[in-house]
Specification:
Layout (H helix, E strand, L loop, with lengths): L8 H85 L3 H12 L4 E9 L2 E8 L2 H13 L3 E11 L8 E9 L10 E2 L1
Antiparallel strand pairs: 1-2, 1-5, 2-4, 3-4
Length: 190
């Protein structure tokens, strides 16, 4: 005889499949949740690491900015000191200019030339005087050009004095002093 199962086997099989399905669904959900957490943890760790590197770089940049500001301050102080040293050096070189100028003038003026006035304006001397002849004046210009202290002798005017008994001519001449700077040396009469 045929065996008939009167138990609700289809409902039991359906419940078993549903139980297996929900178990599998929960397992997949747990694995997916764990995977999402792992990926999130991995990327959060990377972001935190990058943020710490960025913060380290910001701190180092701030320190370098402070050092750059100190270097700029030191460069400004160095430039100021170099300027002072240059002024002191210029003053040192032009310390005895008055004496040197008068000594050199005495050497280069030939007989027959008489200096009436010497005026120093910066690194230029303005010579005013009288000459017995133009040859004496030309000799003086040549002596100025050969001088170690003077350069660029430029006669401004030569005029004959008709009222003088010796027939002297008046002259004005500009002579530059080597190695002087206009803003360091002061103008005035020697």
């Amino acid at each position: 005889m045929a065996h008939i199962n009167l138990l609700p086997w289809r409902e039991a099989a359906l419940k078993a499949r549903q139980k297996e399905y929900f178990t599998l669904l929960v397992a997949v959900a747990l694995v997916t949740f764990a995977l999402v957490l792992a990926i999130n943890f991995y990327f959060q760790t990377r972001i935190d690491g990058q943020n710490s590197k960025n913060q380290y770089l910001k701190n180092e940049i701030a320190q370098l900015d402070v050092q750059i500001a100190e270097i700029e301050t030191l460069n400004e102080k160095k430039a100021a000191l170099q300027k002072r040293i240059g002024v002191v050096d210029q003053l040192q070189r032009s310390r005895n200019v008055g004496t040197q100028v008068l000594d050199e003038i005495a050497k280069i003026i030939p007989n027959g030339i008489y200096i009436i006035e010497l005026e120093k304006q910066g690194n230029t001397l303005l010579l005013t005087g009288k000459s017995e002849s133009n040859n004496h004046l030309a000799n003086m210009i040549r002596a100025v050009e050969l001088s170690d202290l003077f350069v660029d002798a430029t006669p401004e005017s030569i005029t004959a004095d008709d009222g003088s008994a010796k027939l002297l001519s008046s002259f004005k001449m500009k002579v530059k002093i080597k190695g002087l700077v206009d803003n360091v040396s002061e103008g005035g009469k020697l």
